[in-house]
Amino acid sequence: MPFVKRTVQPQLLCRLEAPRGSETPEPGGSEDLVSVSNLALTRVLLQLSDLARLSCSLFTELESELRGGAERILRLQGRVLRLQDRVSELDPRQEPVRKYPNFLRPLVGRGTSAPPSL
Predict the structure, then answer these.
(1) Which of 47, 65, 70, 82 has the greatest count of CB atoms below 10 A from its CB?
(2) Distance CA 50, CA 35 (A)
(3) 79 burial class (0-12, 13-18, 19+ CB within 10 angstroms)?
(4) 5 CB contacts (<8 Å, ≥6 apart)?
């Protein structure tokens, strides 16, 4: 299971902060609609900036992984081209062919049956 590298924490956009020692926010100037909408907009911008920073980090890491993969592919392509050149230089009529014993021939006198015909 992969490890978590990045986490995006959701923001409580319109929740007002309660003063210390109190459970509920104090009524007053911060409860009007303009203040609440400004607070929500500010928190949305903060969350979007956090998301943009994490996405930049993600794409930077992805770019480095893709560059590494591209370098490996280029090295393999060079090796394949060198092998193709080497194989094209070979003349199949001049290369020696090893002779292997015929394993399909039945063993005579050992009590084994002949292999099925091909």
Answers:
(1) 47
(2) 23
(3) exposed
(4) none
82: phi then psi, degrees, rounded to nearest 5: -65, -40
Phi and psi at 117, nearest 5°, equal -70, 145
Q: Quick one: CA dihedral 31, 35, 37, 41, positive or negative?
A: negative
| Alpha carbons 32 and 50: distance in angstroms, whole number | 27
Query: Both tokens of residue 64?
Result: 């480095």
Note the helical H segments in the chain. 33-89
What gap in Å lies between CA 38 and CA 104, rounded to an integer?
88
Tokens of 115: 């292999």
Per-residue pLDDT of 3-51, as tens digits, reads 778 777 777 777 766 656 666 555 555 567 888 888 889 989 988 998 9
Residue 63: both structure tokens together:
């770019």
Instruction: For the chain, give every domain's residue range.
Output: 33-89
**What are the tokens at 94?**
């001049």
Rounded to the nearest 10°, the torsion over CA 18, 19, 21, 25 is -40
Is residue 109 left, alpha or beta, with left meaning phi > 0 and alpha meaning psi from -120 to 50? left
